Amino acid sequence: MLDFWNLASYFTLLLIIAPIFYILLNIFNSSSKETTFLLDLSLNEYLINSSIIVFFTALFTTIIGVFLAYFESFYEFRFKKFFKFALVLPFAVPNYLFAYIYADFFSYSGWLVAWLRNEFGLKIHFDMMNIYGVIFIFTISFFPYVYIILRGFLAKFSVNLIESAKSLGKSDTYIFFKLILPLSRAAIVAGASLCVMESLNAFGTPNYYGVHVFSTGIYKAWVGYSDINAAIKLAGILLLIVFFFLFVERIFRKPTMMTTCKTRRQKLQKLSKKSEIIVIGAFFAVFFISFLFPMINLLVWINRSFESTNWAHVFDISQNTLLLTIFSTIFIIVISLFLTLVSRFQKGKAKLLSNSLANIGYSVPGSVIAIGMLMIFIWCDKHLASVYGFLGIEKSLFLTLSPVILIFAYVIRFLSLGYNGIEAGLKACNKSCYEASLSLGYGRLATFFKVDFAMIKTSIYSAFILIFIEIIKELPLSSLLSPPNFRTLAFEIDRYASDEQLAMTAVPSLIIIVFCFVLLSLFYKIQKKDKI
Q: What is the pLDDT of residue 266?
């Protein structure tokens, strides 16, 4: 039986997935000659480039993530605690910033290339502005997804299985390839699939490197050619590709029959001196390439651009970004709380439906959501024209040209982070406390604040941090939906890069990184305290 709360949750979910359904419903609309020409000209290139990038990004991020997680989980070596936090820090850096830094460093005018040319007469030039450069940038940006998910799985890996294999005389190499790797398949596929989704979503890196993929094609069709029909069709095709990847991922993520509950702590193995040096060197190399070097380069840019930076403008866009990010994050947390509290007592297909609809947005690229949001908000503005006239509002596209469209787009894109985080916290809570509160005459809302909130506040804080970090770095939605007089830090960074003013991207980039670094540190402490 559907009560008011269930109906309200389904209505909320329908509003959230409306832009996605709009794209799917309009993908097969008749095309104009211009749209057909544009698709015939570019579609094959988008498919080929996207496929190559996705395949090799998934491959390389998996190799790096598995290597790091394995040695961290099963071996003891110096600086291990430092690397455990340091290798998560690439999450604090937007992938498009990596693209700008490495393109500038390896360019003809980059300081290393210039120094080799001037001091030694070596005319070396590394061309990063191609599909190989995109794969490299995505690899160093997204490998933490595989690394974090897999190390979480390996932390609960069955000690008995490993000891049984060793008692049979099996080597560490055999145990890794024949036991650990096959049983970790679900965790590895989960991390790699997130890398795939992020690769399809990314806009700034392929756009700057001149590599034509679906996200840049959608932007080009809408902004460059003003062909919304072509943008919708490209968004629809990309959406179908994403659904195909999700289907394949479900097949490969079927759980393996293994208990991950340890009866005792995993005994870490000691590495030989030579092996320890190699492992530490490999860990440091990953850390240097994915975080330390970009930060050094960013400080060089700040030194170059410090005097020419318009600090009043930086303050304004920082204020805009923070207000937008905080409000959007709170809005997402509130909706997530409502949906999870309602779904808590749903069963069977109703619960499965709620979970599926709440999680669908994170799998959908931002450019797809942006096009769907644009069309829905434009439709709303057209039908509210008489209301605007009555209220004295002169803008015919009042909602479309307001920050409201960005907030709703963020809700669709990142609701999954809040929903899954809070739902995991609720699952760990005992329902008996909730039911006892209801039996004493307290309503659902009062029970939540008196009982549930105290038990899940860690999950709420963690979800808030993750959502905040994702929103403040987000570019595809910002590039397509930012109002003319409301710029975000990500949008401003992209604008400077498009004008080849790379040094000017340093200050807004550093602001984003500092916020993300502080929040990641808090998240690390929260998770560490929660485990204790």
A: 63
Residue with tokens 């530490």: 280
Output 470 or 11, whichever has higher pLDDT: 470
Token pair 């596929």 in the structure block, residue: 189
CB 252 within 8 A of CB 262: no
What's the length of the chain? Answer: 532
- The DSSP 8-state label assigned to residue 225 in this structure reads S
**Residue 114 to residue 9: CA distance in whole angstroms:** 60
CA distance 100 to 91: 16
Q: Would you state the structure tokens that stand for residue 111, as one six-digit string?
A: 């300081």
- Higher pLDDT, residue 172 or 349: 172
Coil, strand or helix at 109: coil
Average pLDDT over residues 513-525: 90
Distance CA 33, CA 13 (A): 36
Both structure tokens of 357:
């609809």
Both tokens assigned to 12: 């909320």
| Per-residue model confidence as pLDDT tens digits over 157-199 | 877 788 788 888 888 888 888 888 888 888 899 899 999 999 9
pTM of structure? 0.88
3-state secondary structure of 396: coil
Output Rg (C-alpha) for the chain, integer angstroms: 25
Please choose, from the candidates 397, 412, 410, the residue with its C-alpha nearest in 3D space to the C-alpha of residue 327.
410
Whole-number Å distance between alpha carbons of 24 and 18: 10
Per-residue exposure over 93-126, b if at least 16 CB sit within 10 Å of its own CB, e if not: bbbbbbbbbbbbbbbeebeebeeeeeeeeeeeee
- Beta-carbon contacts of residue 51 (< 8 Å; ≥ 6 apart): none
- Rounded to the nearest 10°, the torsion over CA 247, 249, 250, 256 is 160
User: For residue 532, is pLDDT > 70?
Assistant: no
What is residue 35's predicted lDDT score, i.e. its pLDDT? Answer: 76
Strand partners, 269: 75
